[in-house]
Amino acid sequence: MQTHPLAQTVADALVPRVAGTVRRGEPLGQYTSFRVGGPADVAVEAESEQDLTAVADLCGGMPVAVIGRGSNLLVSDDGFRGVALRLGRGFRTQQVGESTIVFGAAVSLPAAARLTGRIGLAGFEFAAEIPGSFGGGVQMNAGAHGRSISDVLVWADLLDLGTGRLERVPARDLSYGYRRSSVGERVVVRGEVRLEPDEVRVVQTRIAELLRWRRTHQPGGLSAGSVFKNPDGDSAGRLVDGAGGKGLRCGGAVVSDVHANFIVVEQGSTASDVWRLIWLVRDLVVERMGVQLEPEVRFLGDFPQVERHEL
Ligand code: EPU
Question: Rounded to whole angstroms, how far apart are CA atoms 41 and 62?
Fold first, then answer.
């Protein structure tokens, strides 16, 4: 497999400038909840804003992709001919104000929700059931149970890797909608949420109830949560289920029996199994339910061409 022609030069330039780690040919599957996929030509774990500035300064000739907690990401078996950027412990910060918290982008959403439970702030309980990072959540407006990040976000600090500029952007300027925003390729560094004071016991009970709900309604195992976005006024899970999709399989990737909008990956599965199954399910739902679903899962790297399935 041909790596990007600039990979070695870029990696060599990054090493002395980055306090975190710089690796060549780093397998990315380990950083995703599907646990499949090939290597990145260069992988950087940044520990500070200076590290991000170094990436902005030195990686201009290569594509850069930010990998949060990889909970919504399918990496191709061939990997990624670019720089995979992850934010390390240095971005796992939390500053608590009276009814606000500034979260670093690498804080996990469940950890963020648990903190709000411990200090008695309401409005962020939904995050307990989303296995992603705060930064990823800000980028894609992650949500559950009718609430999403945009309901509580006040501002986010975003770094433009093209210009190296860090800008504090009010949430109202981020064009938030259902699982979308205008954050785009910018790196979320941190963001502030505003919540409502409430009793610790009450907030913690709500979090526990949501987690219980999740355990009974969604499958365990290796998955990326919902595969498809819900179409307006309907549910992708209901549609895949109605089309008879449960149990459908490509290699080691299978549509969950617990929730039809989840693909669960078994040992020995490849990214291309998941990829083929996603499009097979999409075609099945078009054919039987007349609705074209749009993936919520993001894709990184090149995937094989798939023909439209004749069902
Ligand atoms: N349903 C079926 N069959 C299934 C699954 C669901 O008929 O196999 C029906 C359910 O009975 C229910 C409806 O579909 O009437 C909706 O299902 P559910 O309550 O499970 O919610 P969802 O719309 O499938 C959304 C989010 C989840 C989030 C839950 C809970 C999307 C795409 N999914 O799921 O988010 O956890 O609500 O709030 O918006 C994620 O985004 O990764 C994710 C897991």
Answer: 10
pLDDT one-digit tens code per residue, 275-309: 999 999 999 999 999 999 999 999 999 998 887 66
Amino acid of residue 240: V
Enumerate residues lining ligand 1, CB below 6 A: 129, 144-145, 217, 225-226, 229-230, 235-238, 241, 259-261, 296
The pTM assigned to this predicted structure is 0.96
41 touches 27 (CB < 8 A): no
Q: How many CA atoms lie within 13 A of 280 on its CB side?
A: 18
Tokens of residue 110, six digits: 């469940």
| Mean pLDDT for the chain overall | 96
pLDDT at 311 over 60: no
The residue behind tokens 């200090």 is: 119
Calpha distance 145→140 (Å, rounded)? 16
> What does the block give as tokens for 94?
């939390």
Percent of the chain with pLDDT over 70: 99
Angle at 99 between CA 97 and CA 105, to 5 degrees: 65
Pocket test for ligand 1, best of 261, 278, 281 (most atoms within 8 A of CB): 261
- What DSSP assignment string belongs to 121-187? EES-GGGGG--SBHHHHHHHT-EETTEEGGGTEEEEEEEETTTTEEEEEEGGGS--BTTB-S-TTSE
Q: What is the mean pLDDT of residues 79-90?
A: 98
300 backbone φψ class: left, alpha, beta (φ>0; ψ -120 to 50): beta
